[in-house]
Amino acid sequence: MRSMRFLALILFSAGAGRSAGISDAESTVLLHQGDSLIFQIQTSSFGYNASRFGLSTGPSDLNFSFVSAPAAMSGNISVWLDSAVVSGPLSFAAAQYYGSQYQGPVAAVQALLHLSPLLSSQILSSQTLDLAIRNEGPDLELGLPPNSLRQDLSVSLSGGPLTVGAPASAVSLDSAPEPGTAALIVPALGIWYLAGVRRAANRS
């Protein structure tokens, strides 16, 4: 029984990606195909302000924009909210950026995402939301130095006449499992498991 549990644990680990936090000192990141930047969005301000004005506390739409250096122009991404894909593929377009530390050309992507009633209620109850930007093509370097990656994303929530900013409090990199990893490990583990079964049969 312990062998079966050990086998299942290894198979699960082989198929899972790796996640690592990104500090504000980092301004760029390289995404391989299938990798994602995951931003933790703080959404509590919408419910607070909606209550003050007697409006529905569940947002109906999310507007986001992400800027990067012009080299990202050829990239294609999809956007996920709490592990559910809501938009994609999206392409970067040329734009101009005016910030305190940088002014000039950028690659930008933006979209208005309609929230389902279920997702809206989840946002209201948890007061946070994971927004993932997933690379759907070849290797893609994202970021606009000297900004931190967290500063490259802008998010707002809206419902009726109310629109409220939703800042990102943290960002992490979720790396997709390397292709073929599980295919290489499974046969080897099968041989290991069968060998163990034979040894147990011989002992009995």
Protein model, in words:
This protein has 204 residues and is an alpha+beta fold. The chain has a single domain, classed as Jelly Rolls, CATH 2.60.120. The chain has 4 helices and 13 strands. A hairpin with a 2-residue loop joins strand 5 and strand 6. It is globular and about 55 Å long. 25% of the residues are buried.
Classify the fold: give the CATH topology: Jelly Rolls
Give the SSE string. HEEEHEEEEEHEEEEEH
What share of residues is helical? 25-40%
Q: Which CATH-level-2 architecture?
A: Sandwich
Task: Give the rounded overall mean pLDDT.
Answer: 84
- The unreliable regions are 4-16, 181-185
Largest sheet: 6 strands, antiparallel
| Count of DSSP H/I helices | 4
Which secondary structure elements does this structure contain, and how are they paired or packed?
Blueprint: H1 2-15, E1 18-22, E2 29-31, E3 36-42, H2 44-52, E4 61-68, E5 76-81, E6 84-91, E7 93-98, E8 103-114, H3 117-126, E9 128-135, E10 140-142, E11 153-159, E12 162-165, E13 168-175, H4 181-203
Antiparallel strand pairs: 1-13, 2-10, 3-9, 3-13, 4-8, 4-11, 5-6, 5-9, 7-8, 11-12
Helix pairs in contact: 1-4
Describe this protein with a few key phrases.
204 residues, globular, 4 helices, six-stranded antiparallel β-sheet, Jelly Rolls, alpha+beta, five-stranded antiparallel β-sheet
